[in-house]
UniProtKB/TrEMBL annotation:
Domain Choline/carnitine acyltransferase: 24-560, 568-629
Active-site residues annotated for this sequence: 382
Family of the protein in this entry: Belongs to the carnitine/choline acetyltransferase family.
Protein name: Choline/carnitine acyltransferase domain-containing protein
Pfam families, per database record: Carn_acyltransf
Annotated source species: Candolleomyces eurysporus
GO molecular function: acyltransferase activity
Signal peptide (UniProt feature, chain positions): none
Length: 655
């Protein structure tokens, strides 16, 4: 059959109207108070167990306080909250409280304490010699394949960004699309600015200036701005992303400049290490730098406005045993296999080590990191968006390995019609005085203490994953993992603690994050049944079934913002990310010195846990907690298999 040659144009399709995004509701005061009282129940039971006030007396007293609050100052504050919501452009929480209270008012250094880290799997297209950092053309500590993978990752990341902007991916015809595009817009062309008492976020440039079309590249603690987009060809057109080969050529040219500077004995002003210091100290030092010389102000502005950052490390980090001058107690010492050592070394390299802590600009929302062996990952300042968002961007960047066909010589030719006259890179040198030199030395000493005190490791549990949990265990995977973490905490501490789990409120306009209080009375009851001798297996299984029901309900209510973000001392900070097929692991720092920061990647056949605590605290041990997690997961398995009410079914997964 011949094809039709008709030239009749097809009728234009009507553009779909973006769905309505409702405003985040203001929770009713009485429901807020009732949820607060319910969240106190397991903690009041713990207080009674330790010899404090009886549970009933403690709960009655809190109910009295809640009732008085409801008819007194609470009513006034609730009315004010309603008025604030009506005056807020998007919602009462994110416009007024969350960003400042959860992030910007915190004065602790961003290094480990706030910034997240994510380790990528190796690129299978890299030659075996590249994975060992062995190439014949090393320059300034970098390697050929390091720069190639870095250029490819930058290009893939920005290709994804451009497809979002053009709505080729995640269009605003769905609520998820609206949420994701709004969230990713905060990853690029912005950074955190240190201020006394409360930081601020920079405003992205309104026009595609040179700095807005550049990435920030750091090597040997020096800073460079590298344009990766051509200027727009017309006022109404977007900038044009350069090819991977063009980006690579610019990186290689930059490396030659660094090599020349090293040969001349030049030393950088390590402004990156200052950005990893206490926020008030960094604010003071930045003010001094900006007043010291006009070029410092320009360098800082370019770093803020750059699309994203790329840190090219010139060293390959490997974990070594503790130095004899600072021995660790036995329960803190990790006896790592070679595979575990390689895994943790990779995570530590992304998190920050003594070899690279100055080669980062910690205020930047998104930083790609590549070392000479082509190990790669990403890290970012947490306040603009939660780690789930950059992890989705990162998955796009790494799911396709380096395409060698994109690095042929013809790919370096500039497209027709573009302005290719801009310099390949610009030095962002800082002018310092004696005070800043001393502050850099002191800041490095404080940063070293932070990373040396970070007891950080990854656990790969591969006995079963979400498929088994759903089909054989008949549990929600997230609720199951959270109950396991409660059991592991109790096994290592002999008590319970308030637990934080992040929940997205993405169904609402500019929705961000809510708090799920994982520790409930039912969760506590299940843990105690599991550790108490003589309790039947049936009773032990029924207890977690009861425990996950309130967890599932609370998570649903948090996502629909029927669970207010009430404060607590979250010694167990947790967050589930994704299946994490392309990630070796991830992590963030413990919120308190005697607690843990735990990020987990739950896949159909495996669960990966990133666990961080502090060596300096006698009550914590990442090694011990990892063992407790494995023990808890293995204890749950036979209980689920003994469940007489559930017929085992073939393992399936929607993932």
């Amino acid at each position: 059959m011949s094809r039709s040659t008709s030239t009749t144009a097809a009728p234009p399709q009507a553009k779909l109207k973006p769905p309505h995004m409702p405003r985040l509701p203001v929770p009713p005061l009485r429901k807020t108070l009732d949820k607060y009282l319910a969240s106190l129940e397991p903690l009041l039971l713990e207080d009674e167990k330790r010899g404090g006030m009886s549970y009933q007396s403690g709960l009655s007293l809190r109910k009295k306080w809640a009732d008085e609050f409801e008819v007194g100052i609470g009513k006034v504050l609730q009315d004010r909250l309603g008025a604030l919501d009506r005056a807020s452009p998007n919602n009462w929480l994110d416009d007024n409280f969350w960003l400042n209270k959860a992030y910007l008012e915190w004065r602790a250094p961003l290094l480990v304490n706030s910034n997240w880290w994510l380790a990528f799997f190796e690129d299978d297209t890299m030659p075996a010699t590249a994975l060992k950092g062995e190439t014949n053309n090393n320059r300034a500590g970098t390697t050929f394949w390091q720069l190639r993978r870095a250029a490819w990752l930058v290009w893939r990341t920005l290709e994804f960004k451009d497809k979002l902007n053009s709505q080729e991916l995640h269009p605003d015809t769905t609520r998820t699309g609206i949420w994701f595009r709004n969230s990713t817009s905060k990853m690029f062309n912005m950074a955190r600015i240190p201020e006394p008492f409360c930081d601020t976020l920079s405003t992205p440039p309104e026009t595609p200036t040179r700095e807005a079309r550049s990435i920030l590249v750091m090597l040997h603690d020096w800073c460079y701005a590298v344009p990766v987009y051509y200027p727009p060809t017309s006022p109404d057109s977007p900038p044009i992303l350069m090819s991977p080969k063009q980006i690579e050529a610019r990186l290689r040219s930059l490396v030659l400049d660094v090599e020349d500077r090293l040969a001349r004995g030049e030393k950088p002003v390590p402004v990156g290490i200052l950005s990893g210091d206490d926020r008030d100290k960094w604010a003071s030092n930045l003010d001094h730098l900006l007043a010291l010389h006009p070029s410092n102000r320009r360098s800082h502005q370019v770093m803020l406005n750059s699309v994203m950052a790329l840190s090219l490390d010139h060293t390959t980090f490997s974990i070594t045993p503790p130095h004899p001058s600072r021995p660790l107690p036995p329960h803190k010492v990790h006896h790592r296999s070679s595979a575990q050592s390689a895994l943790d070394s990779h995570l530590h390299m992304i998190r920050g080590t003594e070899l690279n802590i100055g080669n980062r600009f910690y205020d930047k929302a998104y930083t790609l990191i590549v070392d000479p062996s082509t190990r790669a990952g990403a890290s970012g300042e947490h306040s603009p968006c939660d780690a789930l968002v950059p992890s989705i961007v990162a998955e796009y960047a790494i799911v396709q390995g380096v395409e060698l066909s994109e690095f042929t010589e013809d790919k370096v030719i500039h497209p027709q019609g573009v302005d290719a006259s801009e310099a390949a890179w610009e030095r962002l040198d800082w002018v310092a005085d004696e005070r800043i030199q001393k502050e850099c030395t002191a800041a490095r000493g404080r940063a070293l203490k932070i990373v040396e005190n970070s007891d950080d490791s990854v656990l790969w549990f591969d006995d079963y994953g979400t498929d088994w949990i759903k089909t054989i265990g008949n549990f929600s995977p997230d609720a199951y993992v959270q109950m396991v973490l409660q059991l592991a905490w109790y096994k290592t501490r002999g008590e319970f603690t308030a637990t934080y789990e992040t929940v997205l409120t993405r169904m609402f306009k500019n929705g961000r994050t809510e708090t799920l209080r994982t520790l409930t009375r039912d969760a506590r009851d299940w843990v105690l049944r599991l550790v108490t001798p003589g309790v039947s297996d049936r009773a032990r299984l029924k207890a977690p079934q009861r425990a996950v029901q309130p967890h599932t309900r609370l998570k649903r209510e948090a996502a629909s913002d029927r669970s207010p973000p009430l404060g607590a001392k979250w010694k167990l900070g947790t967050s589930g990310l994704s299946a994490g097929y392309l990630f070796k692991g991830t992590g963030f720092g413990a919120m308190y010195e005697d607690g843990y920061g735990i990020n987990y990647l739950a896949a159909p056949k495996m669960i990966k846990f990133g666990i961080e605590s502090k060596f300096s605290n006698a009550n914590t041990s990442t090694k011990k907690f990892k063992n407790a997690v494995v023990e808890s997961l293995m204890e749950m398995k036979p209980l689920c298999l003994k469940n007489e009410d559930v017929e085992p079914r073939p393992i399936t997964s929607h993932l």
